[in-house]
Amino acid sequence: MTGSKRIYALDTNVLLHDPTSLFRFEEHDVFIPMTVLEELDEKKKGASEVSRNGRQVSRFLNELIEKGNGHGISNGIELTSPQGIKLKRGGAVGRLYFQQRATNGHGKADNQILSSVIELRDQNTDRAVILVTKDINLRIKAKIYDLDAEDYENDRALDDFALLYTGSTELPENFWDHHPEVQSWNERGRTFYKLDRRDDEDWHPNQCLFLPGENSVELRVLHVDEVHATLVLLDDHSHSNHSVWGIAARNREQNFALNVLMDPDVDFVTLLGTAGTGKTLLALAAGLAQVMDQQRYREIIMTRATVSVGEDIGFLPGTEEEKMTPWMGALTDNLEVLANPEEGGSWGRQATNDLLASRIKIRSLNFMRGRTFLSRYLIIDEAQNLTPKQMKTLITRAGPGTKIVCLGNVEQIDTPYLTETTSGLTYAVDRFKDWKHSAHITLRRGERSRLADFASEAL
């Protein structure tokens, strides 16, 4: 291996996290230690996402070897993208190299990978050799041996989580002065505005805008182009007369959330917020109102990632629904509020937990592949623990008339190798922000109790 190109040595967890990572290093070369191949072989059995990714990596490697076998593996194999894989990359491609000498099989796998990369560096003193791993401890070990090590970041949705789209923006006090020529009209009991857009108004479809103070107003962007923007006045769900299934908005962001959750033209909603901001309660209240009262959807389907038992819920007794019940404490707690005769609406007084539960189905993420949901209201809880690939698998299950609501708190990611910037929830928020049938709201204020509020600040 000669030349000025860098050599990236890939750890097993990078390939299992993103099988296409092989092809994402542009003109640079990729090196795979023998221990990584052995670990891929161990992971290939099973129906989990990790096992599927392991098998996909093996198929990619086999395809590359078959393509370049005429030239011999020792000289490196050209890393041409496989058919059907769309990658953002330049024209130049690197080469794939394997560790030629088998390891002796002793010691921890991480240490064997480390020693093979150190040997590679010593053989290629004229080139930069970088170990790419999602394992923080292995990166620390590499630094101890003066070896360059990096996290795999090609799948990051954005560089800094602080830059993530929040879904709402405060307008300046002189907003209306900047827009003297505003067309306004009423249609079906709603007020619309059309105005010329200024350069500093970087708005997205279904973004919520608010003007605080005495002349406070809350608006939502319906349509936006380079010249004009069409806004609609938001419904005030903070008043008990406009409550949703007996639930009234307690703050501005909750009102924004109820507006987009109740809009049939918004097919995909993401709600981000810490514990106690009301994500699950709002999503369930809007779902029940549209399933029971308006009969817009057939039923509510609720699912979440069961992280602490990994991919398998098999050891729990009972049916799929019974197996998932221990994970659905949030659903049970919120149903008690929604079925309360004192707090429920006119329907809520008659409704019982049994009636509501009959229209809410609990499903495991493990069994979502191959299914299509027609006219369903799908709530994905704890969505911050999903990878971008898992998120895509779920969202593509939506059939005609289905609405998907993703709830999550990126400060509580429990999945190994996922971070705030690589979470599937962050990925979905960033990729969907310019689509006219999606909306995102970041909920900031906790609404549990003064005890919970003080505890979150003081502890």
Considering the chains and any ligands shown, give keywords for the structure.
6-stranded mixed beta sheet; Thrombin, subunit H; Rossmann fold; alpha/beta; 459 residues; 15 helices
Task: Describe this protein's structure.
The protein is α/β, with parallel strands linked by helices. It has 3 domains: 7-150, 5'-nuclease (Rossmann fold); 162-233, Thrombin, subunit H (Beta Barrel); 250-458, Rossmann fold. Helix content is 31%, strand content 19%. The protein has a 6-stranded mixed β-sheet with strand order 3-4-2-1-5-6. It has a 6-stranded mixed β-sheet with strand order 7-10-11-12-9-8, with no helix packed on it. The chain has a 6-stranded parallel β-sheet with strand order 15-14-16-17-13-18, sandwiched between helices.
Blueprint of the fold:
Elements: E1 7-10, H1 12-17, E2 29-32, H2 34-43, H3 49-68, E3 77-78, E4 95-98, H4 109-123, E5 129-132, H5 136-144, E6 148-150, E7 168-170, H6 175-178, E8 183-187, E9 190-196, E10 208-211, E11 217-224, E12 228-233, H7 252-261, E13 268-273, H8 279-293, E14 299-304, H9 320-324, H10 329-338, H11 346-350, H12 353-358, E15 360-362, E16 376-381, H13 388-395, E17 403-408, H14 424-432, E18 438-443, H15 450-458
Parallel strand pairs: 1-2, 1-5, 2-4, 5-6, 7-10, 13-17, 13-18, 14-15, 14-16, 16-17
Antiparallel strand pairs: 3-4, 8-9, 9-12, 10-11, 11-12
Helix pairs in contact: 2-4, 7-8, 8-10, 13-14
